[in-house]
Design brief:
The structure is a single chain. The protein has six helices and no strands. It has one domain. By secondary structure, the protein is mainly alpha-helical.
Length: about 150
């Protein structure tokens, strides 16, 4: 999660990289759009039996999509890639929840839920700090993807 979605950089990406500050809302909503589409089409997930592999593939897809969004030549490509990242994140969540429910004994779920909540709240915030520091030291594109 330290490499989380660099939402903190979206205003700079929209204005200084793409030159379209009025389209900032598209960057903010792209991940949600991807998540909604993934949820609406998630019926196929019931046929997947290797949940750990599915989580790894979804995480790789997420990372690749975010990285490519950083080097997208235009805002339309970045929005599509961020939507792909949002969809991949949702699919990863589906399989993580499945693994959670199938493997963790009921007596341990409360304690582990606290740890999980901590990682979900601190991880993305740490990712935003990382994104800002790298963008300040290097570039907005370099912080999100490749220069």
């Amino acid at each position: 999660m330290v490499m989380a979605m660099p939402v903190v950089l979206f205003p700079a990406l929209a204005e200084h990289v793409f030159g379209h500050p009025g389209l900032l809302g598209l960057l903010y909503s792209a991940e949600t759009i991807g998540s909604v589409l993934a949820t609406a089409t998630s019926g196929w997930t019931s046929r997947v039996h290797h949940h750990g592999r599915a989580v790894v593939l979804a995480a790789l897809t997420y990372g690749a999509a975010v990285g490519l969004a950083g080097v997208a030549p235009g805002i339309a490509g970045a929005v599509v890639l961020l939507a792909v990242a949002g969809g991949a994140d949702m699919i990863s969540g589906v399989f993580r929840d499945t693994i959670w429910n199938q493997t963790i004994p009921s007596r341990m779920r409360g304690r582990l839920a606290g740890i999980e909540l901590l990682s979900y709240s601190v991880g993305p915030l740490g990712g935003q700090v990382r994104a800002g520091l790298v963008a300040d030291a290097w570039s907005v594109r370099g912080s999100i993807g490749l220069p």
